[in-house]
Amino acid sequence: xxxxxxxxxxxxxxxxxxxxxxxxxxxxxxxxxxxxxxxxxxxxxxxxxxxxxxxxxxxxxxxxxxxxxxxxxxxxxxxxxxxxxxxxxxxxxxxxxxxxxxxxxxxxxxxxxxxxxxxxxxxxxxxxxxxxxxxxxxxxxxxxxxxxxxxxxxxxxxxxxxxxxxxxxxxxxxxxxxxxxxxxxxxxxxxxxxxxxxxxxxxxxxxxxxxxxxxxxxxxxxxxxxxxxxxxxxxxxxxxxxxx
Length: 244
Hints:
By secondary structure, this protein is mainly α. The protein has helices spanning 10-23, 26-38, 64-76, 80-88, 95-107, 111-123, 130-139, 144-158, 164-176, 180-188, 196-209, 212-225, 230-243. The chain is 67% helix and 0% strand.
């Protein structure tokens, strides 16, 4: 593009950074950031040649979508100091900015920081949505009780009705902890019609804990919703074989 005289815009830079994040190529990411700063998408306040040096702390404001892509790239490359550097100077942070930092911290073994960032979002009054909670619940480390607290807060504190994705995740956690009846009760209390995926998740209770009645019931519900699902048919046949 540069050789052809085509000027990259913020979307071009964001796409390039996303690709480099997938590759984990931090060195090339630094070079791209240098180009961003020197282009019209960077701030005009700079400190000499240090603008193109990715290890210096002279951060400048860049288009928000590029900022988010930079944070994602740094996090996936394991350079959390650089990710924090971009995040801290952002005046206009979107929900994506916050969630990118939360996921980046979690991916780099900084679970405690993920929780702090999420709590800071709430304190600052950042409007959360159901996707925010899906991402957070998947990346946040912690006990079942803590995750149940965040799950409950969706409706109580934020007025967000949990989707099937949230219920699937909580059913999975309850299954894994051996709380089979609680998982089934959660499904039956869902404000929406439970789909096949949430019943299929409950099937793991039978496969792991040998709860025949729960496994059979979950399989029957799953088959009624998705007759092409082979796992449910296998479970029912296995249950019938055990009961003979």
